[in-house]
Each structure stands twice: as structure tokens, then as C-alpha cells.
Amino acid sequence: MAHRILIATSRYYDHISRELEAGALEALSDEDVVTEVIEVPGAFEVPGIIAMAADSGQYDGYIALGCVIRGETSHYDYVCGESARGLMDLAVKRRLAIGYGILTVENEAQALARADRKQKNKGKDAADACLAMLKMRKKFVR
Predict the structure, then answer these.
(1) 25-71 pLDDT, tens digit each
(2) Burial readout 62-99 (b: 16 or more C-beta within 10 A, e: otherwise)
(3) 114 is in an annotated binding site
(4) Residue 60 in 3-state DSSP?
(5) Number of domains within the chain
(6) Residue 87 DSSP code
(7) Which domain holds residue 113?
(8) Sheet holding 97-105, edge to edge
(9) Cα–Cα distance for residue pair 40/47, rounded to 1 Å
(10) Strand (E) or helix (H) holding 10
(11) The domain spanning residue 15 has which CATH number?
């Protein structure tokens, strides 16, 4: 039976997020999965939408994608920290299989290198992490 995976993508840096999403979808294309993509405004909203989706019981795993680039204020620290904390809380407390692909970088060049499917391909890494956690959950949760 195919796993259902939700990809929650922040559209704040749309060109970067689309490349991350393409990397994740490519990685999943050879797997026995059904994917759905949902868009949210920014990285801060990703944990919330994954929590809502988890409550629906429709999905087996989740992939969190987006990008936060450091700016001139402390806003960066709050968005990075709270989105990561929110996702970790969901993974630990609710035992969700979440692949983490929210880039936290100093500048756009770093983001582009990490998102690019021909370079670091962090979208693929997030998809691979989700699949790995689904396998682990199957081993431990009966």
C-alpha cells in the first residue's frame, strides 16, 4: 500500500522553495508514495499546517520545505527557531515522520546552492529523511 506524503512548502522565497519541492518530488517519484503539496505563506506556518494535516489522519509522512534568509533584525532567529521547534515537537510528541527541508541561511547564494538539484539538493534530503523515518516507525510502532 502506498504511503501518503504531504509536502508543506513555504512560498516566502518562491524560487528557492520551488527548487526544493522539485528535488523532493524527484526523490519520491520512484517510491511507492502518493504526494500532495500544500503551500503556506512562510516557514513559521509550516508546523501549524502539518499539525492540522496530522489531525486529519490522511497522511503517513510529511516534508517541510522553505527558506529563511538572515536579514537586519532578530526576526530571522525567531522564525528559524520556532519553525524548527514546532516541527521537532510534532515529530517527538506525535511520532510523525517529518523530513526537514527548511533552509536557514545567511544569503540567497547559500540558499540557491542548497536548493539546487545539481548541487546540494536539500529537497531530496528532506524526502529521503521522511522515507527513512517511515521505515523506522514501521519497525517500532505496531
Answers:
(1) 999 999 999 999 999 999 999 999 999 999 999 999 999 999 999 98
(2) bbbbbbbbeeeeeebeebbeebbebbeebbeeeebbbb
(3) yes
(4) coil
(5) 1
(6) H
(7) 3-137
(8) 33-40, 3-10, 61-69, 97-105
(9) 10
(10) strand 3-10
(11) 3.40.50.960
Q: What does pTM read for this prediction?
A: 0.96
Q: Is residue 78 a part of any domain in this protein?
A: yes
Query: Is 117 annotated among the ligand-binding residues?
Result: no
Phi and psi (nearest 5°) for 67?
Answer: -150, 135
Active-site residues, by number, are 75
- Taken in order 29, 35, 39, 40, the sign of the CA dihedral is negative
Does the annotation flag 68 for ligand binding? Answer: yes
Grid coordinates representing 12 are 516566502
- Is 100 annotated as belonging to a binding site? yes
Flag whether 45 is marked binding.
yes
* Residue 17 within a domain: yes
Is 71 in a helix, a strand, or coil? coil
Res. 130: pLDDT tops 90: yes
In a domain, 42, yes or no: yes
Nearest-angstrom CA–CA distance, 18 and 33: 20
What is the distance between the alpha carbons of residues 63 and 126, in angstroms, rounded to a whole number?
6
Q: Is residue 44 marked as binding?
A: yes
Whether 142 is in a domain gets the answer no
